[in-house]
């Protein structure tokens, strides 16, 4: 009897609960955007001691996203690649201390300027050069694609100096500090921050800066109007309540050690290794994964090209020769940019950086592998094939059971050499934002300005891994009996 009374009550409660849930408004999922940046541009963008991306840009973006209810996926890479990804529609926006100018407005839609800057010209500390006129005939270092580089190029016409370009800020600074270049041009807050934190350079025009204009947030022209509007609203909000001023003061009035850890850690290679061990390990792991996958897949692709290269069909041989010629002839970085930045614009599909990097290695290393595989097969005495055919073996079977096994043994030293080259070539993929060992070193240098020590550590890690790979390859070679 009690059960009969309870059942209607329970049904009524569930019905009421269901109606209440249906009556509640369904909240739309927050939009997620892909945002690119150059993480070697302190104080706008850099890494802290925990390998988190921080800086004026990062704090502004984080605060705006929170207030405007959107999320984002950050993609740090070289400045040029970061800008091109947005221009080609593979990323939604870029925030990287990027100056607003007329040329960029033709390619991008841009936000309200969130910082006003000027261009400084800089020499190494103690330089005898005191005026721009004294740069005539000398070399000036510029960072590719920046407004400061454009300003410097304009000054070249007037003062007659030579120009060389760099893809990252720290390398450009050290080129001047080491005396390889006589001067550079840079956004004033960036160089002032670097000098305050130990870079041995000096600003020559602190009170008469060149005109750089405002710094903005950029999206592809004609696209992502909602994201741009959200950024402008969010920026107006943080500007109004004082959050913006706190962000600016946080970075421009603080020592870099506040964000990058104990300055004493930077006084020795052991200290740098200890304080950045997790970053080095992650970079090394990414390098190893890329290398192993590329070695396996490029070897298979190369063997296929080599077999095609000695086919009886002239069309198959021609195809193999054409593929090997094309991908051996392309510089690795050009191929990486083509696959990651150029190709998606044609096929209309985004390609992840890791996939693009792996495909780059497979195509390039596989072409070289195919060339020496074909040569290895051709090095097998022609009498071996004739003997196999005289015993009644078909061409394909004779190749598979007689020629190929002997040819592969001849090729082992070439395979070992190609494995080592593949490992080293992974460093080039840092240009498209893959966080392997070289890119890890770049980010750490941007953080602590200890170029010599950091690159010595990176070089030592590469040498250790190459040595282990060589030992393993030689062990495999000894196990194979000729």
From TrEMBL:
A Pfam family recorded for this sequence: BPD_transp_1
Domain (ABC transmembrane type-1) ranges: 284-473
Membrane topology: Multi-pass membrane protein
Cell location: Cell membrane
Keywords: Cell membrane, Glycoprotein, Ion channel, Ion transport, Ligand-gated ion channel, Membrane, Receptor, Signal, Transmembrane, Transmembrane helix, Transport
Cross-referenced SMART domains: Lig_chan-Glu_bd (SM00918), PBPb (SM00062), PBPe (SM00079)
Keyword set includes Transport: yes
Membrane-spanning intervals of the chain: 284-310, 322-343, 452-472
Segment forming the signal sequence: 1-28
Main location (coarse class): membrane
Cited InterPro entries: AA_ABC_transptr_permease_3TM, ArtM/GltK/GlnP/TcyL/YhdX-like, Glu/Gly-bd, Iontro_rcpt_C, MetI-like, MetI-like_sf, Solute-binding_3/MltF_N
Family: Belongs to the binding-protein-dependent transport system permease family.
Protein's name in the database: Periplasmic component/domain (HisJ)
Originating species: Eupransor demetentiae
